[in-house]
Structures are given as structure tokens and as C-alpha cells.
């Protein structure tokens, strides 16, 4: 009969049920058992960590990182998420937004793609160089975005283009057509079909003469009412649109000096229209796989601008959505689903 002094604890791990059983052993055997169990426990813990590591990596890939990098002397802010070795998707924002407009789309893509969403100078969190020292043009924006992508090692990428993102993205495509793996077009224009109607009359007048009078008329497009309308016009259920959007954008628009920069860009937008034939030639020559997800109730870029793409990209997949200019705000889930299915079929895997 063994007394309690001759006994010790032996722990037996059942990993599946996480149960512990206790038995009494003679002291000598107990010492050996304890040593063996300690060694086994250490090995099991290491195995458990190894098994968890892929999961941790997958979870981390959905985390959005907020970074700033200097490109040609200008601090460019960008959001980044997803595995660095996955196919790259570049999200290019419109006016008066920033990469903030992609805050929900980024995590919806980041488990499978390397997602990069920058802010142009004077937008979002990027720097605001003085107008006297910096050329606020779409051509310059494209050069800076190209510099950013080169620094990040993005040698090939799909482009999501919305509003201002279209001329910036298509200028990138003209610079490096071989790098564009696919296009996702969301209310981003490349045809004169999409720049017609009453909305465009005062802007075209400013393009024509650049007069101070016509410039001042466009200042109304920088007010809170105008910003709010871009988010709500054409939306069936406005309760789905977060009001923080227009407050966020307007706060940035109201910073000192920003209004004049935006008016400069209104004027320069005319240079994009002049490049439409070159954009269209790129479509015809390179046939990039294209998904068009377009808010058809948009008064800025109406549905005719979406249909026009089919003239040069007859294989493009066109989806006209019952919403307005910033379609991600109330149709984000639908757009993300369409994008994931499309990119899964079209993007080359690394």
C-alpha cells in the first residue's frame, strides 16, 4: 500500500476534449512521468502555435494599414491590406472623396487580394502642396500614383476607378498598358456620352474661356449642400447612406486653400475629355477584362456613360445599379460580391 508521500500527479492531456485525468504513481515513476509530460506539453504547445499561424496570417490580411510615403517630395497617404504576394487591386477615388470611400470595400477584398487605396494631393490625408509650388493636374496625379505603385513594388494591378479615379487610372494605363490586369469601372467616365446634360454646362463654359466669372459659378459645387447631394441623389433608400460621409468630405474641402485647388481641377478636367480617344484606343488594343458597376441614377455621369464602354469593350460585364454617384455607400455588398467573382475569374494568380 502506497502512502500519499509516495504519490504524485500525472496529467494526461486529451486535446480533443481538453480533459485532465489524475492518477497516483510511485514517486520514482512519477518523476519520470512528470518529465515526459512536461516535454510532451512543450511539443504540443509548439504544434498548436504552428497550427494557428496560418489562421493568424489570414486574419491579419484583413487588417487595413494606414501609411504615408514620400513620392517626388509629396507625402502621399494610402490604405493597404491583404497579402503582399497576392494579385494587386488599386482603388482610385473620386471627388470630393478620398480613400475613405473604400473603407468597407477594402476588408471585403483583402483576404484574397493585395489592396492599395491612395489619396491624391489635397485629398484625404495626403499633403497639400502650395498651388505656387505644385501642378494640380490629373497628369501630375497620375505621375504620383505611378511613383507610389513603383515604390510599393506593384508591377501589375487591377484598377478600380470612380469619378476622378477614371482619368487618373486611364492615364496610368497609357503609361504602362502592360501592367493593367483588369478594370472595375464604377461611375468613372471615358466617353463624351457621359459628360452631357445640365450638370456639365457651367463646367464646359469654364473649360471654354477660363474666365473668373465662370470659375466663381463653380464655387457652389464646393458647398455642403453640393457634397451631400452627390451622396444622396439617385439613392432609393437614403437611410442606408452614412451622413458622416459628407461631413468628412466637407471638413476637408473647407480647409484653407482647398477651394482654389478644387477649382483648378474643375478646369483641368477638360484635359481628360481630350484624352478620351486615347483611353478608348487602349481599350480596343489591350482588351483588359472589365467589370462595369454603375449607379444608373447618377446625374453627374449618367448610365449612357456606362453603356458607351461596350463599343470598345464588347466583352465587358455591365451591371447598372439602382443608385447614384457613390454606389458603394448603399450597394457596397453587391459590388463587393460582383468584384470578387469577377476578379477570381480574371486575375492571374501569383
Question: Secondary structure elements and their pairing?
Answer:
Layout: E1 9-14, E2 19-24, H1 27-61, E3 65-71, E4 74-81, E5 88-92, H2 105-109, E6 114-118, H3 138-151, E7 157-161, H4 165-175, E8 180-185, H5 201-209, H6 212-217, H7 224-232, H8 244-253, H9 258-274, H10 276-286, E9 290-295, H11 303-307, H12 309-312, E10 317-321, H13 328-346
Parallel strand pairs: 5-6, 5-7, 7-8, 8-9, 9-10
Antiparallel strand pairs: 1-2, 3-4, 4-6
Descriptive account of the structure:
The protein contains 13 helices and ten strands. Strands 3-4-6-5-7-8-9-10 form an eight-stranded mixed sheet, sandwiched between helices. Strands 1-2 form a two-stranded antiparallel ribbon. Helices cover 44% and strands 17% of the residues. The longest helix has 35 residues, at 27-61. Strand 5 (88-92), helix 2 (105-109) and strand 6 form a beta-alpha-beta unit. The protein has two domains: 4-59, no CATH class; 64-346, Rossmann fold.
